[in-house]
Design brief:
Blueprint (H helix, E strand, L loop, with lengths): L1 H10 L8 H6 L5 E3 L8 H9 L4 E4 L5 H14 L4 E6 L5 H10 L4 E5 L7 H6 L3 E6 L2 H9 L4 E5 L5 E2 L7 H9 L6 E4 L5 H9 L4 E4 L1 H4 L8 H9 L5 E4 L6 E4 L2 H11 L4 H8 L3 H7 L23 H17 L6
Parallel strand pairs: 1-9, 2-3, 3-4, 4-5, 5-6, 6-8, 8-9
Antiparallel strand pairs: 7-11, 10-11
């Protein structure tokens, strides 16, 4: 596959790069910004889309009227394609879907639920549907449900994670050989080299989350952004496995959860400890001790806060440089 990559780029200029993902979304680069709660508002999504990637609004932390506002502002800020990430367990999902249809959004990334529930309805309205999965089994179900592509998200990813705990390097080739629809790699990707590795393993594009948190356009709190760039190896850990596994930056809240889990806490006890609005408290309001701080392992490689357009360009430039000069890796 690597030789095929090299041959393609020897005969085709990089600025004319095209593959199944760029064609599916009508974008310049196969770089998708993840729809992260409390980080992915219209400023970030429009900035990524304007830079040539695909910006995504994170609807999971938005009330229906807030999503409508962000969609309208994103449409005003970019004439490029953008999408909405829609957790299928969201209580007002029918209202979100109506907003998406009414406002003419053409790309939806679904997650945290059964894709068969809404995929065909969305596609009947001319919407491209992508589902986030953590295993080959669920990737196949997404394909059977009619999804146009899947995001295969590995264990390294921030936020809610698969129970299988399969790493990205294992998950991507497994999913790629199971389905025929395009595969987008996610989890532990923040650089061009990582993007190239994922694509050599069978992905047609990448979804990047944590790197876009550390941008001025992300709607998350500045103290959370500062904590992300200060993170070192081992500063995140998968937690709350009895409920829904989630990768968290270690802080006082994490320590309370970790201790409770060591003591065999019940689901009810963990739910009481989690409470309501814990993620908002941490990532949006900036409570670095009692808030839930969702971020990926790759945060240990992120050292600076820089504009989203620079992040896109940096990833693409490194990807292009290494691909055109593969011996530099050796």
């Amino acid at each position: 596959m690597f030789l095929l990559f090299n041959f393609y780029f020897l005969i085709c200029p990089m600025q004319q790069f095209t593959n199944s993902i760029t064609q599916l979304f009508n974008i310049q680069y196969p770089i998708i910004q993840a729809g992260m709660i409390w980080a992915s508002g219209w400023r970030l999504a429009s900035a990524v889309s304007n830079a040539g990637g695909l910006g995504i609004l994170g609807a999971g932390s938005m009330y229906p009227d807030v999503l409508k506002e962000h969609v309208q502002k994103c449409k005003a800020a970019t004439n490029k394609p953008f999408g909405v990430n829609l957790p299928l367990l969201y209580p007002d999902i029918d209202k979100h879907i109506q907003t998406i249809i009414d406002e003419g959004v053409k790309i939806v990334f679904t997650s945290a639920g059964n894709p068969a529930t809404w995929t065909q309805y969305l596609k009947q309205h001319g919407i491209t549907v992508v589902h986030v999965v953590s295993s080959s089994k669920f990737a196949l179900k997404a394909q059977q449900a009619g999804c146009d592509a899947v995001v295969a998200e590995g264990f390294e990813a921030g936020g809610h994670n698969g129970r299988e705990e399969t790493t990205t390097m294992v998950l991507i080739p497994a999913v790629a050989q199971t389905v025929t629809i395009p595969v987008i790699a996610a989890g532990g990707i923040a650089t061009g080299k990582q993007m190239l590795a994922a694509m050599i393993l069978g992905a047609a594009g990448v979804q990047v989350g944590s790197r876009f948190v550390a941008t001025p356009e992300a709607s998350s709190h500045q103290q959370f952004k500062d904590a992300v760039i200060a993170a070192k190896e081992g500063d995140t850990q998968l937690s709350l496995k009895k409920l829904t596994p989630v990768r968290l930056l270690k802080n006082e809240f994490f320590k309370q959860v970790w201790q409770a889990e060591l003591e065999g806490a019940s689901n009810e006890t963990l739910l009481q400890l989690l409470g309501r609005g814990r993620a908002k408290k941490g990532m949006f309001e900036g409570d670095m001790q009692e808030g839930e701080l969702e971020i990926g392992q790759v945060s240990s490689l992120i050292e600076t806060i820089k504009p989203a357009a620079e992040v896109v360009e940096e990833i693409w430039t490194e990807f292009k440089s290494v691909l055109e000069n593969p011996l530099k890796l050796l």
